[in-house]
């Protein structure tokens, strides 16, 4: 199969039962996405598939043949961090760092959803674009757990990145 990962077309031969997460980590040497729960509950394996957030531990790699995947390794430019990554550092939005790649990919996808005007479960007025309040950020990031409880810093970092 062939998949575009972080802007580069990559060919890989693998068992049809292999998950996207295992393909990224074991076959393409992209170890940013982490294997946390292997059940889609923690979000540490979150990547962007055709621009949408997905839990890569739940997706068979063969289903992404010909599609585009962005991992945490693809968020930054060649010489500098993305504004989101810089905000995570500035706000100390990580402690152990294990969940950080999934948090970053989820935040990038969430910010794109907001820019497209997609509401969340806590969006009050569906006739106007959602204001990116702390409650909106928390709701939209709810699928990504942080065992170190760096949530206030993550929310602050996402809020800052949204304003830049």
TrEMBL record:
Record-annotated 2Fe-2S ferredoxin-type domain positions: 1-75
Origin superkingdom:
Bacteria
Pfam families, alphabetized: Fer2, Fer2_2
For this UniProt record, the keywords arranged alphabetically read as follows: Iron, Metal-binding, Oxidoreductase
The name on file for this protein is 2Fe-2S iron-sulfur cluster-binding protein
